[in-house]
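Exercise 7. Predict the structure of 1-acyl-sn-glycerol-3-phosphate acyltransferase from Sutterella seckii.
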Amino acid sequence: MTPIVWLTRLLVGAYPHWQGCAPSPKQRIYFANHTSHLDTIVIWASLPPALRRHVRPVAAKDYWEKGLLRRRIALDELHCVLIDRRRTEHSNPLDPLREALRQGDSLIIFPEGTRRPQPLPSPFKSGIWHLMTEFPNVEFIPVYIENLHRAMPKGVLIPVPTVCSVRFGAPVEHSPQDLKEDFLNRARDAVIELSKA
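Solution. The predicted structure, encoded as tokens:
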């Protein structure tokens, strides 16, 4: 167990519950509700060690590149795909995700786009739909993180010890022909359904 996994388990538990699928080396996009800066670490730490090497969290460059400790965690420990959230004429925030998927990596993403201190996810942004239409053979696994918004809400630097769980659901059915709103609602509903388990 690496130091970051040990510390995560000590502070917040991060106990995995595989309810609709089992751990698998299949290429996947794990998508979850987003309530805390710890979300990324908690999902990654809840995966079996053999999978962590090939599962890359997607994180905001402007946050995770600030400071030596954050950068070391993001790049050296988690092997994050860092994205620039500002779309410009010459760059698209999804390009680094596309490249990681082409290389065969799995991803952890937060389709809401920003943290919200609430138990249920807000409407999803369209990025996850674009990835689904371009990479239809990737499995899309809904994940619900329970209680983490209480452990490290916005503005808090040191987590409050608590127990959180990470629930992995069944792969969301999808087709490249799915209409954007239909897929986004189906994906969000799958995360909400896990909140009731």
